[in-house]
Protein: PQ loop repeat protein-like protein
Amino acid sequence: MNSLLNPLKMSSEHCDQLATPNGFSFGLSIFIVVGILVSYLPQHLRIIARRSSEGLSPYFVLLGTTSGTFALANIITLPTSQADIGCCREISRVACAAGLLGIAQVAVQWGCFSVIMFLFLIFFPTPGPEEHVPGSPRPATWRDALTVAAISVAHFVIVIIISIVFLLWYPNLLQGWATFLGVCAALLACIQYLPQLWTTWRLQHVMSLSIPMMCIQTPGSFVFAGSLAARLGSSGWSSWGVYIVTGCLQGCLLAMAIRFELRDRKKAQQSGGLRVPDERSPLLSHVSPQLLGRD
Structure:
């Protein structure tokens, strides 16, 4: 009898804690949700303004989308999150919303990165105005963009279906499934930025990659990880650990992007604001009018 009452008592105590949300934690969580939305806007707008996603590695987009799906399914299936969702029947709507902000943070990030995936499909890479150095990687094709979108959607559907099966018929195995999802998310996050680092290095240009987005997200990843760690504790390491890894790798990409951007601006200043000619530029377009006999 005691073994049956203990889980109920623990659940009641957990709901009592959620019923009185901490003001600082609630404000920080709201700030992070808004920050995630704002941080992705520069990347979305840059792709739309250039009308090209050139410079984004298709493997980076694919790994980022699937990693986000794993992370979303992970935090939803965690027993701690399930307890938070269950408490919504007993506590106020405001307290319920505060308790579910951890899930909302991951969901918003997944949604924002999914928008990048769809923009990558809509504005599939076309050559931009930047100089292409010899040995640049082959631009992604329309088929590459379709493949990334198809795999991402299929992966999302499969993960959600399996998670629902565990939730409905195997709830005692949820912690193991959630840990598996978290490990997969962390592994994909570890390699997510590697193809983008390689692509940006070989292109020697930022192109459609947004530096403002990375300036916001690099420190934000560590703040996000701390917020989730405070909410989920050590048992939720598979959820917040992925953002520590992401922050470190994104910091490396940011440093590389800033280096190339400063170099390009220096070249532009040295050439008087004119584009530096390359082997594809018309020969006579860079000859002065005096040499051509014009006044």
About this structure: The CA atoms of residues 205 and 259 lie 9 Å apart. Residues 237-270 form the longest helix (34 residues).
